[in-house]
Amino acid sequence: MDALIRDIYKMPAGQEFEGFFIIENVEIKKHRTGEPYLRLIVSDRTGTLPILWWKPPKDADLTIFKKGDVVFIKAYVELFQGNVQPKIRLMRHAEKNEFKREKFIRSSRFNIDEQFTKLLEIIETIQNPYLKKLLELIFYDDEIASAFIKTPGGKFIHHATIGGLLEHTLGVVEICEVVAKRYKSIDRDLLITAAILHDLGKIDEYSIDMAIDRTDEGILLGHIFTGSELISKKIDEIEGFPKKLKIKLLHCILSHHGEYEYGSPKKPKTLEAVALHYADALDSKVKGYEEHIERELGEGKGWTKRHFAYEVPIFFDGEISYEE
Amino acid sequence: MDALIRDIYKMPAGQEFEGFFIIENVEIKKHRTGEPYLRLIVSDRTGTLPILWWKPPKDADLTIFKKGDVVFIKAYVELFQGNVQPKIRLMRHAEKNEFKREKFIRSSRFNIDEQFTKLLEIIETIQNPYLKKLLELIFYDDEIASAFIKTPGGKFIHHATIGGLLEHTLGVVEICEVVAKRYKSIDRDLLITAAILHDLGKIDEYSIDMAIDRTDEGILLGHIFTGSELISKKIDEIEGFPKKLKIKLLHCILSHHGEYEYGSPKKPKTLEAVALHYADALDSKVKGYEEHIERELGEGKGWTKRHFAYEVPIFFDGEISYEE
Amino acid sequence: MDALIRDIYKMPAGQEFEGFFIIENVEIKKHRTGEPYLRLIVSDRTGTLPILWWKPPKDADLTIFKKGDVVFIKAYVELFQGNVQPKIRLMRHAEKNEFKREKFIRSSRFNIDEQFTKLLEIIETIQNPYLKKLLELIFYDDEIASAFIKTPGGKFIHHATIGGLLEHTLGVVEICEVVAKRYKSIDRDLLITAAILHDLGKIDEYSIDMAIDRTDEGILLGHIFTGSELISKKIDEIEGFPKKLKIKLLHCILSHHGEYEYGSPKKPKTLEAVALHYADALDSKVKGYEEHIERELGEGKGWTKRHFAYEVPIFFDGEISYEE
Amino acid sequence: MDALIRDIYKMPAGQEFEGFFIIENVEIKKHRTGEPYLRLIVSDRTGTLPILWWKPPKDADLTIFKKGDVVFIKAYVELFQGNVQPKIRLMRHAEKNEFKREKFIRSSRFNIDEQFTKLLEIIETIQNPYLKKLLELIFYDDEIASAFIKTPGGKFIHHATIGGLLEHTLGVVEICEVVAKRYKSIDRDLLITAAILHDLGKIDEYSIDMAIDRTDEGILLGHIFTGSELISKKIDEIEGFPKKLKIKLLHCILSHHGEYEYGSPKKPKTLEAVALHYADALDSKVKGYEEHIERELGEGKGWTKRHFAYEVPIFFDGEISYEE
Amino acid sequence: MDALIRDIYKMPAGQEFEGFFIIENVEIKKHRTGEPYLRLIVSDRTGTLPILWWKPPKDADLTIFKKGDVVFIKAYVELFQGNVQPKIRLMRHAEKNEFKREKFIRSSRFNIDEQFTKLLEIIETIQNPYLKKLLELIFYDDEIASAFIKTPGGKFIHHATIGGLLEHTLGVVEICEVVAKRYKSIDRDLLITAAILHDLGKIDEYSIDMAIDRTDEGILLGHIFTGSELISKKIDEIEGFPKKLKIKLLHCILSHHGEYEYGSPKKPKTLEAVALHYADALDSKVKGYEEHIERELGEGKGWTKRHFAYEVPIFFDGEISYEE
Amino acid sequence: MDALIRDIYKMPAGQEFEGFFIIENVEIKKHRTGEPYLRLIVSDRTGTLPILWWKPPKDADLTIFKKGDVVFIKAYVELFQGNVQPKIRLMRHAEKNEFKREKFIRSSRFNIDEQFTKLLEIIETIQNPYLKKLLELIFYDDEIASAFIKTPGGKFIHHATIGGLLEHTLGVVEICEVVAKRYKSIDRDLLITAAILHDLGKIDEYSIDMAIDRTDEGILLGHIFTGSELISKKIDEIEGFPKKLKIKLLHCILSHHGEYEYGSPKKPKTLEAVALHYADALDSKVKGYEEHIERELGEGKGWTKRHFAYEVPIFFDGEISYEE
To answer: Which BP terms from GO are recorded (chains A, B, C, D, E, F) (predicted)?
Structure first.
């Protein structure tokens, strides 16, 4: 029985539990006697927990436990000034196959394989041979494809799940299809290609070992640049790819955050770029609101706390639902 | 033959023409001899033209010509310092039925009756009896309906045509349907109702006699307030309309500009409100870009001048097309 | 003797006290033995206090104590790690008439009845019959009047007291009188009417049961809209009320926050509107500074902490005084 | 008869006129024959006028006419392409006493001597001996006083008249008196002193020879600094002036623009400073709106053009009036 | 004798002149007789000039003259309403070698060859073998080098001359050397390399045929992206180039505009990036001020007009000097 | 042995230590028995520490220990809930000469005497006799000079050390020398004088008794004003100092923060002012980044926490070094 941290907080003092956790912080402390003990903060996807290894075995090498390690713990609940602070009986590193990563990071609510098949089907509908070739070069590249289907859409704000990037990409494509159908002046193939590729750079922006983290590359360069650069490189492998088409496609990627203050080095200057920007905003904001509601209210109703990025509290009295 | 101003500019000196025009400005001037003459600026939907009535009949009452009047003019082109400045041979007020208002103001590219029928069909799909009742109260009210189908979406920035409000409303509804289908947590009936009603207040914001103009009410109160107030009044006529539903609907209207700096007294604080805001932004920005391209490039390609509101020049090398 | 929380913090360990408090937070916890105990945070207008009911009677139904309840408590002080954390001997719900609401929420420093009389006298000075009629319709409506005299001016920033709205309204009126006297181009009756009504919508924005709270309506719609709507409704009951006057009055209400970023859907576009906006700013900022000084320094002198809304610390070395 | 430019524009071709004007721009041009002629733009307080000296006397030294000179002109109206462009018959420099400066710059609507007397009376009411002494040192200094009563409140935005600074100062003092009376925690003497001195630095910021202009000192240093420095210097002449009082007074001056973006090096951090800032804003904004209405609408009604600084058009349908 | 437009404006009516000019605008107009004539606007680096070809030869093909062509013109000055508007006697296309491009676009005040030699010497001082290799790959590539030495630093704001990029690059390097010497924690080789490469992308951003223009690529993608991409490509040609070094270098390029609002997709997050940003700002702002002074005041002194980007007028009473 | 707080945190429970500390906060508490004890927070330059005097001598006057006092303490470590909270055995006030101020506040990494000598040498290079005289008046004034060499550059953001102002001043001068050498249009003497004096006002802005603190004068008036005023006063002591030079110098001081939002009452409007602003920004930002790295990473590498003012985390993998 692999206990969730959310549940441990509800246990009475004295109750025993066990499970797999990630070490978020670890310090070796000393008792007055000089004997060492461990003070840890551990986490799973439901929260974080302070916990003490008060009496480790005399001969234990406590220095082997590092931030980021997954450990197996047996412990019992203690209340310290009315707060939960369990004490460990036994702790060891976990084996790779003992636990499920889902304990630490949520997955997209959609089936990833079905979603990816849907993406490939959309690629089939592209008429422009250069754009189609480009998409095939990218998504039939196993390395890129396998990274793409796992990458989250973000760390906190929206689509912060395994597969979140794929889910978000399809959401944006759906909206762009409606717009391209209504506005015939739009180059539909260009818009859909841009929608599919707009966040491609995120495959280098996030690492998802046990938790979603931003890579140094992500923080220092950003997905707008790394995505544009990757697309540019792939285009250069396609003979005869029209230069103007390349510029128009890259412009969509470079401007899709819409405003400079969101890290867009360019503002949208074509019909396709402006459509992509607002379609992206629409899908990500709605999802961001929904994830905040889920995180804050669970299955309850009423007001959330102020959203740290959108700067409003959110009111919800419906049902969170993913049923088709 | 009712000449368009756009064409008069291309005529050689001496060419005769005639047609209907709106007086934008008129001054009675005097020749050195003391004889009066008229200096006018006239317009139609293709532009404005300076023109002189150099030798009006001795007994003519020149004071009867006022700003805003529609007049019939016969004249010939003169070049003054290489600039076109025609001289009038004859000028009189136009009769109501002599000319078509389309000469002065463009209409939506869509068929207004078909569009309105489509709107009524969408109302039929609303399941929530209170919201459906509300929409019926509004759109089966002949006065409101006949204003609604003529009102423009704006004066300059987007959907600046007769019927533009109806066209924009359906554009926003289309996008909202996709979003509501993807995000099941959204109350679809509430979102679609809000989308239909979001710009209702514009029926009081614009006057469209011969040109689109903002009313005093529009400038001093604004469509966000007048629309919300009208909806609130109509809701109060419906027995048993749930108070919370009223508040949630009005919140969508009051917050649909999204940010305070765009005159929204509230920022979106529900799923439906945030979806409406970005769907509105998406439809209006794409249309605004398209109208700017048409206005600036006609059937040409390349770069427009900087858009006065979006603050970028726009690049376009496709075809403006409204074909289904 | 009804102890104030501010004083409990100064008591030595072991001292007994009793009094009425509001429950801000309550959790049922379990001792290691499985026996339940209560962990509460309670408040009065002088602060908040953590407190434990360590050993409630065996047969007590602990689930009856809810957030927001007013309770009578007998307890004694304990120091836990040098911090005050009293233990409860006895706790029960309070009867309606046992306690004074003033323990929980402060009242305006002015006498409410005198202030309201003053307001009615000002209404008498209005010459314009339509505006006078409007004010009478509103302030001789018992329901509105009795709400108006109790409503606070705000939750935190300024006039956060019972009767604060009335106090602030008179402050703004006083300033407007000086301005109207100096600037003869101003329509004095319009300005004074707008000043009296500018925050009327706050009667729906705040609930003041035991503490000042914002209603759902307040957060989702806001007092600018609800006030304007109420005034509009009342105007429509008055025969012959000039439409232009209605628009000018509502414009004052809609624009009185002055800038979009403060939730004004309109910026001031008339002399009266601009005068009202700055008179409102003047009275509320001075009061906001004063309340911050009182809250932070008590009767002391020197620097306050940074004001959370005005973003500066405030320096004060005078005497807070309300003497006439 | 000294013609106003506003009236010359309404004259028929051929009409003779004469009057005094300031040269705004002057160019010596050559006819094809090589003969020189002058092309000028001249102004008075009602507008600007292009005018030609087509045939100056053969032996005239045309280089003596410079920008900023006041000249006497005799001329007759010519219409050039329907535009007014008079031709000069005779032009010479004006003598100092031939013309009135009021032709070129408007004066405050209030009587300057009465206003200054009122200011001195207010100074009498100050109880604090140091502040009173300071005000006396400043306003009984003839050089400062005679500059103070002439200086405008600004070049364009508000109180742009001779005596405008004095008028504005009294307006701010009046408002501050109301506030100090209502809020007893305010140090009334400090507030009134700060109100009297808040724009003192403007005596160095503007030059008013024939028109209001900003000095180099005004543009490079600004009245906030020069005023504060002058006050500081005067304080240092007063024995025993308390240092804390000096700092509090200078803080009011340094922060009276309220926000950094208006060139305030400090934000208000005392009750007196915040009251002064908003009282200043109130008086100057109302006056700025009123002056814009006068300039734009004259005695008419309706909408002005967008105000260049306040960024809104203004609606006015009352009467501009200065009657007591 | 190749006349400068600046001088033509000072010629008397009737004077003959000849020279080479770029066509900025051209329209074929018709006389009342139906005969065609040309209306042109032509330019050189000193300004623009309206000019007419009133009587072209009967058999001339007027359609061969296009915007952007360089033409040879013989003409004489005519004054039209006191304005200069010459008439052409003869016009033909210029041969490539007949004229000097310096007539149309200014060059850097520094000797380009000497400057480039200096740059190569600086490259010699780089100790880090990877960075040195990278710089050699780029600057010993003839195509890049020959573009680099001609490219301007900008179109309007600063270093808007042939060779301006090279001049600005050295200016930034000089400042960075001082900073790297003072702050030993800085990686000097990395900073100098980043300084040398920071605006490399401008070689694709501007076209300088006869005038400086921004390319479509420049407007749609921008030099920050194209430069970073080119550097990244060159790095990938160097075996063993450390990945972290690549990321740190690219981060400097991507963040060198410092703030999002200036199109930086990243804000500086390393010592080298922050140093580069402010060194770039320092060199470009000083140069931008200086160029504005030269353009506005020529050899005069006093105040310039408000700078369109820096939003201030500039005061200068020194001597513009480039002497060593 | 004078223990550093940084080291006390690493001691095991029970270890004895002694040393000098500043009292940051002190409260007299009571045991249940009614006996008093002290709860303190003490600090040195390496951090802050909670500490208890659990059993002070019966007859001790505990009220003599005040915030800001330097005390000598003997104590031993106790762990309270795993946290360090030592208990005092003995505490008394420190004598002036017992401890070194360096324990509480860091000094500039440069030798202050050498730096000041360097400053005097730079003053020698000024050719303009008025500017040289001004600098001599200021820096040969012992009171100013001795304040100047001790004053920090800031409280937190950059150069927060004794002597930091001197260090920063020289850094800015160095950069300005490079710029003045490159841009000959700059008045080098004016720029260097402005650079030397730009932060002079900080001698009144900070108090550095045992820690750096801002004075009331600093918070209410600011160094931009007090510095400008002091310079202005000194200039007035120099006979014949040109007025225009005074204005240009003061303009540099008043505008050196560059933008209104950083408290600059003026934006730079001369070449010297714009150069000074960016040189100041460059030196202070690089130093600010470096100090943040040191504070956060010590001798480690990687990412710091987000900088509270620059709003980014900083990446560093080099070596902090001050070696020449």
So the answer is: rRNA 3'-end processing
